[in-house]
Amino acid sequence: DGPPVPAHLAERIFEPFVSAHRPAAVTESVGLGLWVSRYLTEAMGGSLEYREEHGEVVFAMTIPAPEAS
Questions:
Q1: C-alpha–C-alpha distance, residues 43 and 1, integer Å
Q2: How many angstroms separate the CA atoms of 42 and 67, rounded?
Q3: Do residues 19 and 5 make contact, with C-beta atoms less than 8 angstroms apart?
Q4: Digits of tens for pLDDT over the chain (69 positions)?
Q5: CA–CA gap between residue 43 and residue 61 (Å, rounded)
């Protein structure tokens, strides 16, 4: 919820302890949620990305289907 992330920070928001809109000393969070989400998604062979489409913030997660045994 909130304004889109500035383009120059779009990839940095997935780094630990990074906040795109507020200095770390002022934020209510520690900045780990997106990092953990991307880490776990990539560990499962997927991807998590951020983009802005028509003024809307979009987080796209792709995880491959499990292989049949």
A1: 27
A2: 17
A3: no
A4: 667 788 888 889 899 988 776 655 555 677 899 999 999 999 999 999 998 888 788 899 999 998 887
A5: 13
